[in-house]
Hints:
Blueprint: H1 8-22, E1 34-38, E2 41-50, E3 56-57, E4 60-61, H2 62-75, E5 80-91, H3 96-113, E6 116-125, E7 133-142, E8 159-162, H4 168-177, H5 194-203, E9 209-211, H6 217-229, E10 232-236, H7 244-253, E11 267-270, H8 272-283, E12 292-298, E13 305-308, E14 314-316
Parallel strand pairs: 5-6, 10-13
Antiparallel strand pairs: 1-2, 2-7, 3-4, 5-7, 8-11, 8-12, 9-11, 10-12, 13-14
Helix pairs in contact: 2-3, 5-8
Amino acid sequence: xxxxxxGALSAELVQNVFAPAFGxxxxxxxxxxAALSLGGLRLAFSTDSFVVRPLFFPxxxxxxxxxxxxxxxxxxxxxxxxxxxxxxxxxxxxEIDTVTRVADALGAAARAAGxxxxxxxxxxxxxxxxxxxxxxxxGIGLIPAGVDLRPQRVVPGDVVxxxxxxxxxxxxxxxxxxxxxxxxxxxxxxAPLGGLVDAMLAVTRDLHMLRDPTRGGLxxxxxxxxxxxGAGVVIEERKVPVPPAVANACAVLGLDPMYVANxxxxxxFVPRQHADAVVDAMRAHPRGAEAAIIGEVVRxxxxxxxxxxxxxxxxxVDMPLGEQLPRIC
Length: 329
């Protein structure tokens, strides 16, 4: 299970098995989406599979995730998502009403994100070989001229910005999966981020890197960028927005919000001279109302993420080994 968690074991599997087997310069960039040149156009292409349990949760469903997860991979690559494919793997015995609810949610999410589902596939597996429904989506979109988002552009002095409160999605899933009550309903942040990215690019196209901190949470996203950029990252722990309900739930469950998955947030690496204007634009957008500057890129400790604690000390924020909460996307 750890190999599917978006942490060090996932990276090991990709780097030691899949990348050598498949080869190719584009694949070895290992971005959220592949940036491609085709017929004079710059395209982003991404695919993702969704195995969340339960299928429905506060704030969304596997259908919403299947759209927003792929749309957001395209968005943080700078692309305006246009088309999706959709593959359903159904377990024998799943009720048609359940399939209909998921399909309706997926279609509504696609319309809300401004994308069209244009092709797909359906397979059925024997009872006991799935959790009702698994979904794969792939998406393509156009990358505007002048947009170049990749970790190799991240340099010391860049400011680290997060678009809002972290840990919400993973805790929302866990609360319904385990029947836990925390005194207030925690609703998933599952949402498309294309409009937010457009607002940021309207300030400047000289953004260096965007990432959506899904599996492995904010910690994994920061470590991936630091490693690829060959630079260090320092964050101020107090400035990372964690809702009280999420903090309390994580305390009860023994989790660290930094490692809990998100489905409607992004982390940005922005040149310092543009940071304030970018944050203002983000806060003016509904998906970025709680945007905050949480740290910076430094020359020290390349490839490592360090957090300054509220007590004045520091701690290393490691890449997670696997995933604290499996099967949440």
